[in-house]
Design brief:
The longest helix is centred in the first third of the chain and has 8 residues, at 11-18. The relative contact order is 0.25. The protein is α/β, with parallel strands linked by helices and 137 residues long. The strands form 2 sheets. The chain has a 6-stranded mixed beta sheet with strand order 7-5-2-3-4-8. It has a two-stranded antiparallel ribbon with strand order 1-6. It has helices at 11-18, 50-57, 69-73, 118-125, and strands at residues 2-3, 25-33, 36-43, 90-94, 102-105, 112-113, 116-117, 129-131.
Length: 137
Amino acid sequence: MIELAASTATVTEAAAALQVEPGMIAKTMSFLQGNKPVLILTEGTAKVDNRKYKDTFHIKAKMIPFEEVEDIIGHAPGGVCPFGINEGIEVYLDESLKKFNTVYPAAGNDHSAVKLTIPELELVAEANGWVDVCKEL
């Protein structure tokens, strides 16, 4: 784990602190599908495409409200990552990550990160699979 003095709460801050391009930050986004929490990791500059999300999951994209993220997921916004999370949360990796060999997800707080290869990320995230829910950049 990489502990930093500088904030890594946003993609821009994390990229600057780690001295990498913003796309290499593995952004973890928290959604509710009915009552079921789901995490989707994307490359740092990607935006979710609502149509692709609905086509993939058959439900409208609904992000977990900021003030509820820590209770539901187990990490506060700015430090959400796909490991050390509460039980029963599905984790998906977006195809946008595949353009990088190495990515940097948060590591549980807003001053940390971890450097992982894509196969390592798949393993530590215990990913349910790959999805394609982001807009083309």
